[in-house]
Automatic annotation (TrEMBL):
One of its GO terms (cellular component) is axon. One of its GO terms (biological process) is catecholamine catabolic process. Binds 1 Mg(2+) ion per subunit. Mg(2+) binds at D160, D188, N189. Belongs to the class I-like SAM-binding methyltransferase superfamily. Cation-dependent O-methyltransferase family. This is catechol O-methyltransferase. Keywords: Catecholamine metabolism, Magnesium, Metal-binding, Methyltransferase, Neurotransmitter degradation, S-adenosyl-L-methionine, Transferase. One of its GO terms (molecular function) is catechol O-methyltransferase activity. Its cofactor is Mg(2+). S-adenosyl-L-methionine binds at V61, S91, E109, D160. Substrate binds at K163, N189, E218. The gene is Comt. Its EC number is 2.1.1.6. The keyword Transcription does not apply.
Amino acid sequence: GTAALIWNEIIREKVTNFIMNQSKEQRILNFVLQNAVRGDPCSVVDTIDKYCSQKEWAMNVGNEKGKILDKTVEEVSPSVALELGTYCGYSAVRISRLLKAGARLLTVEFNPEFAAIAKQMIEFAGVQDKVKLLEGPSEEIIPQLKKKYEVDTLDFVFLDHWKDRYTPDTILLQECNLLRKGSVLLADNVIFPGAPDFLNYVRKNPRFQCTNYPSHLEYMQVEDAMEKAVFLG
């Protein structure tokens, strides 16, 4: 798995970027703009999956784990959801297409280039009325959610950013009183690349009830999993 990632993420990507004079993320967006149906979030998600499974690997949640994400969002039916790690906007589009009327998703992205791509992806999918993209570090944005973005509590949180931020950001969400009894956290990549500190924290914490969903790394046959942690208050 690591060797395949190094090949896809570093060697192959750098060569292609140099030859084409653009980033992989820009290539994904261009493929969507040329091949997906504007205003159709399902078409956008399917087109990204097609590109990343056939042409270039990318760190979206992917369709296999995406179905676990879908099921969780449908079960929670959140009014206010938070995503940490927007990347190209794949999961923001995937989540928002399932939100009920009047619900909103706040998605946080640290990388300005990824944020710019995601903004275009979200608008092309036609879900910009449901999604607010917040650019900056999660540890700065989380404490601003209540006052600046009028969030009372979060019904659903999707963690898919830097793995070493999973635990501190989960603690920060609690310290800022953003979790209520029944708030659901879903964390991606807990096996590969892995988030052992996070698993240790939520599984040993009596305030969380955890469920593990074994799966595979997006677009690869490498073992991975998602962890659901329900906040018990």
